[in-house]
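Quick illustration for those who missed Monday's session on complexes.
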Amino acid sequence: MHDETSPEAFLEELRSALGERSVKTGEDISDDYSHDEALTAGWQRPFAVAIPSTTEQVSAIARIASRHGVPIVPRGSGTGLSGGAVPRPDSLLVSFEAMDEIIEIDEANHVAVVQPGVTLAVLDQALAEVGFVYPVFPGELGSSLGGNVATNAGGMRAVKYGVTRHQVLGLEFVLAGGEIMRSGGKYVKSSSGYDLVQLIIGSEGTLALVTEVTIRIYPRPGFSATMLVPFASLPAISNAVPELLGTGVTPLVLEYMDAVGLSAMSARVGFELGVSDAIKNAAKAYLFVILEENSQSSLDAETETFSELLLELGALDVFLLNEASAAKLLEAREGAFWVSKALGANDLVDVVVPRAEIPAYLERVNSIAADSESFISAAGHVGDGNIHFSIFQPDETKRYEVIREMLDFGLALGGSISAEHGIGSEKRKYLLELEDADKLELMRRIKAAFDPQGILNPGKVI
Ligand SMILES: Cc1cc2nc3c(=O)[nH]c(=O)nc-3n(C[C@H](O)[C@H](O)[C@H](O)COP(=O)(O)OP(=O)(O)OC[C@H]3O[C@@H](n4cnc5c(N)ncnc54)[C@H](O)[C@@H]3O)c2cc1C
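Prediction with flavin-adenine dinucleotide bound:
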């Protein structure tokens, strides 16, 4: 006989609630469950893995875990970049992979209701079949909607559609004690007390387990134009951005890539830029613009306006790509992370500053890189003020100083430590050191109200 709170008793209760095959231990736990994609987080095997199929099972897991005081680490697809889904040796990893049903596509209300394990790729295909789109597109389409909600995922289309928190209308979630709750729904307005949906979005599994997501969907526009635009200087790009957005046409994508980064990204997917050597040599950085419209005539008009304006704003040229090249360029940009990883980047910084501060920010980053003898490459969502930096600095102490200085300066400019990758375990030390102490204390009190025992994703965020 084992005692009531032994690991064996815990597993026995879990198995009787979920069934033998939905609880994995020992050699049955695949290595996939030991990590996410953060460059710096080590791999760690959990004590056990639970794979629930229903909200009731998630609730049972939380009840059992809280009774036994076992930490729970939620996991979507494990594509996160901040160590948020990395388990601890004493934790139960709850994988949402089997909760992968698209419950409803409600065309009348422009809403879809999905389980958290549905991936963006699967959702996009289902919506395309009925002429709709869910517009939040982080670079990794294998990521899950539950993970997107928990990290408040952004991506390239945020300049037009905002991030996950702007598209989620309702959630069903399970608290640490097993209580099942719903907040929000198929409506766009509510002034009915504190907004729990918005509190849970971006909470990285530390407040609740997300079991159902209600999102906005949009009619899928049929016409798009993709431009690759070389510039001779970074300030020229930064100055161009507000002018472009000031036309009243919001591009679907407005991305910045430095010349070194773009050539590495293109080489990875075999994309020939089709740019003359003269321009290639003169170009320091590129804008990548996608316009999207419901009719060819309005798209043509917008493309012309943008092309003329870009040339006036100092672009070396404007390359309008055909469909195949446009798809390749998008693939190249989406693969930026894999290029950085393959080249040996030691860490990523995902800072956001007010858009107009980008030139000042980039100038400071250049001087931090020079002073610390680090190589720092940049690409990112320039339309949102969010640049992703790959930091190449093998010395851990120096790297810490470099990142701390970058984040500190971002905050000083009115920005924020992470725009979309989240804090997880890997940016936690910077959050705790650099954020306002009173704000951190309030966050701790919110965490305690949701999860008094502290069993939901301990050691993450706060
Ligand atoms: C190549 C590449 C490109 C990327 N590009 C972008 C980008 O452009 N923009 C962007 O925002 N991100 C990007 N990411 C990061 C990543 O895809 C997102 O963070 C994504 O939202 C993670 O989803 P996931 O399902 O993989 O979550 P996981 O990695 O499994 O988990 C992420 C966090 O969510 C929590 N969590 C997961 N499911 C639940 C749930 N059901 N309930 C409660 N908590 C949960 C986990 O505990 C963890 O804290 C990129 C990643 C890669 C590898």
